[in-house]
């Protein structure tokens, strides 16, 4: 087996798929990075669903033990991100808890409906905050026109409107927006690969951002 010496600085840039593969080989560094990457999201998701500290801690501890023992139960998408599947898996675990403890107190159909709402609310809230922070980080040192073109276009300003506000040609808007997307995607790939899927979804749907981001 090859040594991981000298790879520590690059480990954080690995995709979920790469980290899970290393975890399957009992790589403690990979496990720690995967844990840090998702613990806040997992905790908020589970606690909001259960509203019970002890049950939340037990479920999360069991989940991480399973990840360490055999992470093959987690699947990644085409962008090598595990986030969506992982939260769905946790959703099923939460439902199991309810089945065991609250069988006669709550409708499981209603619970599943509430869980679906919680899933979207939590992920959208966390995704927006983290994505905005990472995007500002990626564009921070870019020229004014590149930054402003991105924020205007991502907030549904037309090419014509953007060109007028920035006093540039429509061709420049197209070029600068394309440039800004490349810059952000490159930054995500190298530093936050777990967010690539969320960014692509945000760019396509333009739902995750609000107008307040324009002047950030």
| Pattern of helices and strands | HHHHHHHHHH
Describe the global form: elongated
Helix amount, in percent?
A: over 70%
Say how many strands there are: 0
Tally of helical segments: 10
Q: Can you summarize the main beta sheet?
A: none
- The averaged pLDDT comes out at 78
In terms of structural class, how would the helical and strand content be classed?
Answer: mainly alpha
Q: What would you report as the Rg, rounded to the nearest angstrom?
A: 20 Å
What proportion strand? under 5%
Distance between the termini: 47 Å
Low-confidence stretches: 1-7, 210-216
Could you explain the architecture of this structure?
The protein has 216 residues and is an all-alpha fold. Helices cover 72% and strands 0% of the residues. Helix 6 (108-139) crosses helix 9. It is elongated, with a radius of gyration of 20 Å.
Kindly summarize this structure in a few lines:
72% of the residues lie in helices and 0% in strands.
Write the layout of secondary structure elements.
Elements: H1 8-11, H2 16-24, H3 28-50, H4 53-69, H5 83-101, H6 108-139, H7 144-154, H8 159-166, H9 170-191, H10 196-205
Helix pairs in contact: 2-3, 3-4, 3-5, 3-6, 5-6, 6-9, 7-8, 7-9, 8-9
List keywords for this structure.
single chain; 216 residues; mainly alpha; disordered C terminus
